[in-house]
Amino acid sequence: MQIIKEVGKIKKIKITVVDRLGKKGCHRGMKVGMTFDYEKDRGLMCPMAAHIAFVYADILKYGGNFGGETPYKTRFCCSDPDTVIVYSIEIVE
Ligand SMILES: [Zn+2]
């Protein structure tokens, strides 16, 4: 338990709206440039995007990474095919 607590203290996870691929704007008001602290602000995100972010945040929180050139940063998107809001997620110290 103590290890998990320490890891959680060190790693701050930031989510940023970086793009929109769909034709319509997000019905939850997500716009490019918005940022969220995963621990504090995820309740303000589109609920579906926050749900998807959970998987990525869990990987980062517990010491995993995504490989490639920026192993502690990746992108994901909301599953709404009309809006397809793209988010980046990364560890910031
Ligand atoms: Zn959404």
Automatic annotation (TrEMBL):
Domain of life according to the entry: Bacteria
InterPro entries in the record: CHP04076
Protein name: TIGR04076 family protein
